[in-house]
Amino acid sequence: MRVAVLGATGTTGRLLVDELLRRGHTVVALTRAPQPDGPEAVSWVAGDARDAGALAALVRGADAVVSALGPRRSDRTVHREVAPLLVTAMEEAGVRRFVGISGAGIDVPGDRKSRRDRVVSALVQRLGGQTVRDKALEWQTWADSRLDWTLVRPPRLVDGPPTGQVEHSAHHSPRRTSIPRADLAAFLADLVDRPDYVQQAPLVAGR
What segment(s) does the record annotate as region Disordered (predicted)? Predict the structure, then answer.
């Protein structure tokens, strides 16, 4: 498959790109850097994620789009602003499959979180300010679209080798409260390979 990637040069994004290439996919990625530090096998599209023209070039001819854009302390509206632009670009290009990263603190209809996670989510939403609101508005944009989207909600991300052990559910809390970035990257790649959790936001954690 030809997979378009946003956030490819971030900590999780690099692992995602490596995993997609390992599985034999063709990867095209967006970059703001003149000379991105990444695998030579990747085709790079220059531009910012808020640039509609760059997004159109990125998704053209793609079979799926994956976003590993993470929250930025200095930019707390990036997800709510990028999502509608990306929806439009995908609709115009005829690309239906989208996989992205949200956060475990976001609540969606149908959730049956554990008491622990309900408390954590309430605290995150109360203290997270615009960063949490950004993710909630991003989810709403995708929920309002007709695309085959999936927004993965991981807890705390940790570094380390992949374990291959991931617990996930559309609405029920996993037992653990962290996940290795490498396992998250593999889970995102799994969702590119198969259409699981379409129009859902699964909770995921290490097992």
Answer: 156-177
* C-alpha to C-alpha distances, 103 to 106, 142, 205, nearest whole angstrom: 6, 15, 11
**Residue 73 pLDDT:** 66
Per-residue pLDDT tens over the stretch 81-104 = 999 999 999 999 999 999 999 999
Architecture in CATH for domain 2-206: 3-Layer(aba) Sandwich (3.40)
Over residues 159-173, the mean pLDDT reads: 96
d(CA 5, CA 24): 15
Q: Using CA of residue 15, residue 101, residue 105, residue 196, what is the dihedral sign?
A: negative
- Segment 118-122 long-range contacts (CB within 8 Å, at least 24 positions apart): 120/177
Residues in the chain: 207
